[in-house]
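Lecture 7 notes: from sequence to structure.
We start with the chain below.
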Amino acid sequence: MKQAARGGLSGSDCKLFAAWMLLCAAIVVHVTDEAGHNFLGVYNPTVLALRGRVPWLPLPVFSFRLWISGLAVGIAFLFSLSLFLARGARWSRPIPYVLSILMIANGLSHIAATILGRTVASVRFPRPMPGFYSSPTLIAASIYVLMKLRNARRRSIQTLAESQHNGACRG
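Predicted structure tokens for the same chain:
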């Protein structure tokens, strides 16, 4: 706690920071895997097939340039959040929870599509699906972030309880 008061990172914040950076790196690897294996050649036909069945579904079709540019901006934003996570900013804590859950779902969907050899009935592709190779790393990094978030929460609750107890004992 003294370290955090002097402006350094607490142990749990430092571990969460490292886990977050690992997840950001895993996302970079995953996007590279997708880009290098023609992900949009599977994604865009899947979106068009889904829109044919469910016209109100708000899924966009992307050109490669727009897709990769949007992901680059998004990844830069995620890396910039690391500064706030490292400092223990409370408002930033829900973001890793949500992103980790989404990345677990993303990784599992790549694995499932690889097993099935398709995304929807009309969109088949040679196995593995683009993004498959990096999916286990993406899932593992996401689980690691969730574990560090849980540990940081436990420590902050414990610290709060101790400070309330010590305050009550002094009065």
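Points to note: The chain has six helices and no strands. Helices lie at 2-5, 11-36, 40-53, 64-86, 94-116, 135-170.
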